[in-house]
Amino acid sequence: MTKKVFNVSDIEFDFKESKLTFAEEIAVRDLALGVYESDNDDDLMDEITATTGYDIVNIYYEVQ
Known about the structure:
The protein has a three-stranded antiparallel β-sheet with strand order 2-1-3. The chain starts with a strand and ends with a strand. The relative contact order is 0.36. It has helices at residues 22-32, 41-52; strands at residues 4-13, 34-38, 56-63. It is an alpha+beta fold. The chain has one domain. The protein contains two helices and three strands; from the N terminus they run βαβαβ. The protein is elongated, with a radius of gyration of 12 Å.
């Protein structure tokens, strides 16, 4: 199966239970933005969640 290329342009995480500062939350968000190769959008979200350690509330991306 050919992987799709996703360009994540905006993302919102569930930081409700975190003790991060606002600046740290922005840094996590910025880290997650960019281009990913994944089989599908579920794998994309799993990859980002595994990398950041936070659940995704909203995600905006384009398939390229």
